[in-house]
Amino acid sequence: MASCQVAPSRSDPLISLVGMPGGGKSTVGRQLARQIGVPFVDSDHEIEQRIGGSIKQFFEHHGEDAFRDLETEVIAELIARPGACVLATGGGAVLREQNRELLRAGSTVLYLRSTPEDLFRRLRHDTTRPLLQVKDPLARLREMHQQRDPLYRRCAHFILESARPSAVQALVNMALMQLELAGLLDPTRVAATVGAEPT
């Protein structure tokens, strides 16, 4: 686990999760939000609500550029929304510099880092992710990881290694520790819930 620069200070903490597809952003984000006692928001879900369909279908009909335009619009709105929350972003959100700047300036960014091999084990039967519907998804994951890992690092305030998908609570605890050390969370606020079983 490594950390970058000190995270921004807000009266209402906004925590954003970035990382590769299948890296655990939604799973960790939901549990982290529950333990902090704030809402959880998934930018991909917000996009699907807006378009009234799946991202996969939107990709097929409008292409990646149109999707990235919409993604930037939604992320900007979520960052500007008042109140604390935990925000899980799409795996490709960091491809645009504008998104990286929005996330880093307006939230505390946690990068859930996994290897392409770990991701492949989790995603090999997944048919919902447009960029992985190729003959050799492992090669595609390696290519994506090589391209995106430096961007995730550039965007993140903290990096959490998430090799084991079963270690969700460990990741949540690491995230809480980093946020507390950075002075972004009151330790007494989450002490009662850390280690609690999810409901």
UniProtKB/TrEMBL annotation:
Record key words, sorted: Amino-acid biosynthesis, Aromatic amino acid biosynthesis, ATP-binding, Cytoplasm, Kinase, Magnesium, Metal-binding, Nucleotide-binding, Transferase
Family annotation (InterPro entries): P-loop_NTPase, Shikimate/glucono_kinase, Shikimate_kinase/TSH1, Shikimate_kinase_CS
Gene3D superfamilies xref list: P-loop containing nucleotide triphosphate hydrolases
Any one GO molecular function term: shikimate kinase activity
Major subcellular location class: cytoplasm
Pathway the protein contributes to: Metabolic intermediate biosynthesis; chorismate biosynthesis; chorismate from D-erythrose 4-phosphate and phosphoenolpyruvate: step 5/7
Top-level taxon of the source organism: Bacteria
Cofactor(s) the protein requires to work: Mg(2+)
Role: Catalyzes the specific phosphorylation of the 3-hydroxyl group of shikimic acid using ATP as a cosubstrate.
Stated name of the protein: Shikimate kinase
